[in-house]
Every structure is written in structure tokens, then in C-alpha cells.
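Internal ticket #5521
Category: modeling
Description: The requester needs a full-assembly model to guide mutagenesis choices. All entity lines are attached below as received. Residue total reported by intake: 698.
Assigned to: D.W.
Attached entities:
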Amino acid sequence: MLDALSFLEAQAISIIREAYFQCKNPSILFSGGKDSICMVHLVRKAFFPEAIPFELLHVDTGHNFPETLAFRDRLVAQLHLTLNVQSVVDTLAKNKIPDATGKFPSRNALQSVALLEAIATHGYDACLGGGRRDEEKARAKERLFSFRDLQGNWNPLGQRPEPWNLLNGHIFSGENIRIFPLSNWTELDVWEYIRRENIELPSLYFSHSRLCLQLPDGALMAFNPYIQLDSSDTLVEKKVRFRTIGDMTCTAAIESTAANVDQVIEELKTCMVSERGATRLDDRISDAGMEDRKIKGYF
Amino acid sequence: MQEWKTEKLKVIFKMELVRIFTAGNVDDGKSTLIGRLLLDSNALSTDVIRQVTEQGGGAPNLAFLTDGLRAERSMGITIDVAYAFFRTDRRQFILVDTPGHEEYTRNMFAGASVCDIAIVLMDAHRGMAKQTKKHIEILVSLGIKKVIFAINKMDLVGYQETVFLSHCEQIKAYLNTVSAEFSSWFVPVSALTGASVVFIGESMPWYQGETVFSLVNGLSIEAEGSSEGVIEIQGIGNQTVYAKVLSGVIRPQATLYRYEESVQLPSFFRLGLPASEAEEGTSIAFSLPENLCIQRGQRWSTEKIFPTQALRASLCWMAADEPGPTLALWLSRGTAFHPVILHLPSGIKLNALSEVDLELQEPMDMALSIMENRKEHFILVDPRSNQTVGAGTLINALG
Ligand SMILES: Nc1nc2c(ncn2[C@@H]2O[C@H](COP(=O)(O)OP(=O)(O)O)[C@@H](O)[C@H]2O)c(=O)[nH]1
């Protein structure tokens, strides 16, 4: 019998192959985070010895960590991939949509407009994403093949049942499927897979010294050009790492001395419980919960 | 970019993945039981426990733990499957919680379909509900192998052994009427006080059996698979065949058969690595053999693959509108979609379970052992709407 990690890997590879053989023009949504990096690795394994048959799509908020972009470009060059970057800023300007404002001007919510534009431009009928059901409530409701209508809307009430993980990728022209091969993985599974497969990650995931803005509740935000500083704000230098990497305006760091994969796994095993308990039970209350908590430094 | 290499793989302790499914009528205590399982098996952090203990005025309020679920229910959006993940020292669990409401049975069917163990809750105070029976029927139809019956709220019946035993008898009698073939266990519990959930407790000295937790952590989930090695072709790349192992074990150089043809399997990659064998559930890749027409949806076996066109199946109907007696649909067992004519019994409704006849336009590949093991699962898709309108298991090839 397959061990848990191999089982999850086999399931993901099966889903990835079905994505390719059922859809006409699927792409990989690549954020530069650990989940999408793992996904690229799985896609490689799924089609090995042939090359990755998908393009990468990065919806760029313009608020990326420089390390993420450097890592992305290196990966693309090494694997000879095609990368399409859809700039959120350009999409906003073109559609006369006001940009995010405030102390933490997160463009997270504005990303979907840019994604829809990229899907239309490149004619993608499916996008593979690294979303996991253990992340948050809304994600937990997603099917492996999650259907989007002509307007890009998700209808949680009318989802296609997937008994025995049998996948139905039939759509009408203009509709789209989001595909989540890592649905059944937890954060710890992802890290154990990174260890087993020796997968390289951006340095942001490991402990380093960084100048941070300390919020009143103790949360740490990486000091960066996109956050507006007030006179009352305090900047502190801390040993931190990131647990998720996203828009710099809304991704909090955690204090950590975990400098390598083994140490991160040890760290997660002791606090994993906390994440699980809280995300599992509280995140179900509101879709915004996870994001709210990330801003508050919850990890 | 670094290559992945076999010798680089660290041998770490092999965890087993176990998927558990919880069923039972609304208010029989499903949320409370899940909360209790998580709490007493140390799957919750101290901060969460503190929070629910404050809520409960001294004792942990387990209903609060699953309040998120409840809020969704009242908002009408938890008509769907919810997942919880937890670990013990030897197993990783995916706990699939599905709605008890009748109208969402198709989601329950889908959620339960992949599970190794089902926990069916029943209120000791009230006895078996209509929905409990429906859930048992679905577990039978899905061919679930292991079912734990948790007779809950024993505290409300004075923890009496006689009450427990009479419920067990009632359930067993019902299992007989629906010809249930799964192994079953019966545990008297109180999700509220925790008795027999994770710890045995002292309230029922007459019960010295397994707890719900010791069962899910201990029951063997080793599938009694068949020895016949069968692969299904997922598709063809430029020069590579991509296939999935459906049963048994496949080795390079094995001779595989389909109808009157045979082929010697070349060396292959299993999950991206060169391998000397590939087991059920894994995907393989090998170079396209010459002089052979390999196509998506074909099956190749170490024993025998034969073509079928007429089939009998147990089916869960999943479309809301009442269908006509014959329908032209697509059938998929995981890869190719086969045009099929479905003959439905009259008056079939959403979530109904029934036996139906299927007539394929073109022959479809069958391996007898998979069907005999009741693992020949399929979905039906309506080409007019592209929706998945049914799912089930093939039980008989009629020709
Ligand atoms: N006395 C008693 N009440 C229970 C027990 N388990 C659950 N309950 C109560 O039964 C009600 C319904 O429980 P809940 O877990 O929400 O049921 P669900 O609808 O199946 O999820 C709640 O008020 C619980 O506190 C038990 O073992 N004993």
C-alpha cells in the first residue's frame, strides 16, 4: 500500500494528467509560493520524460517580494517554460478600476479581474492552482475540477459531484475550470514532500533577519515600499520567515529560527495543531477570515 | 534545476492515509463527536481549547468547535462536504463530514465514495431515523468495507447496557434486510462527556471494547485487491503513453493482453521515476510501442480484457429534473467518455438509488476481476448540460 505522501502524490499526478487530456488549453497559475512550486514539480513528474506541456500564468500584483520574482524567472529559464505575466496594475488602468488604497493597499481582491483578462487573452479553458482544502473554508468547498461560468463566477451550490474522484471536465466555450491537484494536502504534507523530493524554495521561507513593522497586536509585516508608515509605527529587526508568500502588503512574517526544511517541519509539527484548530474551525465562518488573520499575523 | 533522484529520497516513517466519513441524522451528534475526537486526540491547540472552554463556562463546548459548520448550514451553504485533517503517530486522517439533510444526498454519496471507514451516528435516546437508514443504504451501495456504529448520547439513557444492545439488534436486523456486506463495529458513546470516543471512561463499566478512536487508528485498511494487473491508458504524449494502474502490480517486461492482442510492456517511469514495479493508484509512462493502436480509455491486463456493450449497474441519480425513460449520455470510469444509452426505471428522482441497464454505442474494455471486486465505478454526464447527472458501480456485463 502507498504511504500517505505517495498516495497524495499519485492522486495529484492523476488529476494533472486528466487536466491535460480533458481540457484543450490548460495553464498553471504560478504565484512563486511553495504550493505552486510543488505543483510545477508534480506536473514535471506527471509528464516525464516529456516536457511540461502547460504554460505558466503569473497574475502580478506589482507588490511581489523581489526574491519571489527572481526565483520565478530562474525556474522558468531552467525548465524552458513559457511564462505569461498579467499585470494587475495594467488591467486596472485599462478598465478604469481604482487601485487599492490605505495603509496596506492589498491588490489581492483585484487579482481576479486580471486573471479573467489573462484567461481571455490566452484562451485558457482551465487553470491549475495550488489551493488546498486545509487552507480555508472557501477552498475546502472546491471540487478537484471546479467550474466557472461565463462571468468567471463560482456557484458553490451547483457543483458537480466527484464520486471516486471521477472528473468531468466538459464545458461550453467561454467557461473555465479551476483545477486543484493539491486539494487533499495539508501544509505539513507540502513540506514533507519538499523534503522528500529535495525541492528548492525561495529563501523567504527560511529564517532570516528582516526589518519589520510591528503592529499593535504583535504581528510582523515586512518593511516594504508599499506600506504607508505612520509616525506611531515601530520598526524592529527580527529573525523571521514567511509561511505563505503573497502580496507584500498583506503577507505577515512569523518569528522563527527554522533555517532549513527539517527545522521548518519540526516547527510546524509543534504549532501545526494551532493552525489546524483555528483554520479548520474558524475559517468556515467567513471567506475573509483567513485573509483577515493573515494581516493580523496569524499563520 | 536539480533533478529528483531515487537515492536522494529520504526514507521517513511511512504514514498511512485513512479517509473517514461521518454519517447520521441531523442532531444525532455528528459535530459534537468530531469535536470530541479532535479534542481528546490532542488535535486541537491550547488556544482553541481555552477559547471553547470559556464559551462553555468551564467545560469545553464542543458544539462551538464546529460552529463554523453550523453557521454555514443556517446560511444554506453547507450543503456540501467539509473536510478536517488530523494525525496520530501512525496515521493521517482526512475526515469527511457530509450534510445529513436528505436533499443533499448526492454530495454525501460522493463524499463517502472514497472513504476507508464510515462512522454512522445514532441517537440512543431516539433510535434509528429514516435518514440513518438511507445512509446505511448508500454505504451498502458504495461498497464501503468498514462501518463503525456509534450509539451516541448514552448519558441520556443512563448508560444502560440493555438500551445499547437493543439498538445494536435493531441495526443488525436492518443490515440484514439491505444485505449489507461490510464489517461492522458497535460502540456505545457519549460525544458530550467523551465516553468511549477516545478514552473508555468509567461511566460504562460493562463496555470494555474498542473506542471510536482506537478503531479508526487501528483497523486495517489494507484493500484485498486482485492480483490481476490492469492499466488504463490516460493518453498519449508526443512519443509517450501515459497510463494508470487500476489494480494489482505491473512490472516492466510483463506481457499485457487486450482482446486478441498482446504487448510486452517496455521499461517505464512510475510517478516520474524509473521503477521495477507500479502498484494500484500510481501512474506510469512508457514509450509508445510500434505497430499497435494505443488509445485513451483502453485497458491492458496481465490476464484478459474483453469488450462489453450491455451492462447492469447500481446507480445514484443526481439530476434534479425528472428524466425520460431513455437518455443518451456519456459514461466515464476516469479517463475516456463513452456514449451510452441509459434505461431508467420510471419516476426516478434526485438521489434515488436503483439498478439500471446501460447500452454502450461502442464496446468498452472490461477486466472481470475489477467488476467482481465492485470497483468498476463510473459517472454519467449529460452532453446537453455538461453536468454530472449520475454515478454508480457496474455490477454485471450482459454482453
Ligand atoms: N446529552 C448528550 N447530548 C449530546 C451528545 N452529543 C451531542 N449532543 C447534543 O445534541 C445536539 C446536536 O448535536 P450536534 O453535534 O450538533 O449534532 P449534528 O447535527 O449531528 O452535528 C447538541 O445540542 C449537542 O450538544 C451526547 O453524547 N449526549
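Resolution: model delivered.
Comment from assignee: Chain A is about 35% helix and 15% strand.
Ticket closed.
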